[in-house]
Amino acid sequence: MKCCNLLKEARLKKNLSQRKFAKMLKVSKSSYNRYERGLCRPPAEIVKKCCLILNYSPPLRRAEDGVCDKSPIGQRILILRQIKLMPLKALSVRSNIPYWRCVKIERGEIIPTRKEVSQIASALGFSPTIFRQENFVNFVSKYKKLIKTAEMSLETTK
């Protein structure tokens, strides 16, 4: 359900005008009107309040909203960075993503946008599909086999 439909449904359930509902949510009437018409995205708190009115679970997905604890993509970025021997600062410069944001993405504090995932993958020399579970596991297992083969060949040359 879109946020604008959610807001309108909650307002109609309470049988309130836009002005009274906006006052109840502690926003201006014009802001609420823009949210309900879909011209602006409402803050997470307003969406949560409307979900409570309708007895829905909030449709929030971002780490900033406190919905998910850690993003697995951050761990995958760290592993790929270590394989490529690339410092985080270099990744930030090559991907054109601010350093502070790269740090938070890698720690799992925020979930990157699709564009950021694409930029990071490109900076690391991979396709964005590398971050999918099956592709990542397949790549890491092949990498481990390659390392074992290299170690064995080094031992035989000694």
Structure in words:
The chain is mainly alpha-helical and 158 residues long. The chain folds into 2 domains: 3-60, 434 Repressor (Amino-terminal Domain) (Orthogonal Bundle); 72-157, 434 Repressor (Amino-terminal Domain). The protein contains 9 helices and no strands. Helix 5 (72-84) packs across helix 7 (99-107) and helix 6 packs across helix 8 (114-124). The chain starts with a helix and ends with a helix. Mean pLDDT is 84; it is low at 63-68.
Provide key terms for this protein.
2 domains; 434 Repressor (Amino-terminal Domain); mainly alpha; 158 residues; 67% helix
Provide the gyration radius in Å.
23 Å
Q: Any idea of the CATH topology of the largest domain?
A: 434 Repressor (Amino-terminal Domain)
Fourth-tier CATH superfamily name of the largest domain: lambda repressor-like DNA-binding domains
**What is the mean predicted local confidence, pLDDT?**
84
CATH architecture of the largest domain: Orthogonal Bundle
- Major pleated sheet: none
Share of residues in helices: 55-70%
Order of helices and strands: HHHHHHHHH
Shape: elongated
Residue runs with pLDDT of under 50 for 5 or more positions: 63-68
Range of strand content: under 5%
Give the termini distance in whole angstroms: 65 Å
How many discrete domains? Answer: 2
Give me the secondary-structure category: mainly alpha
Oligomer: single chain
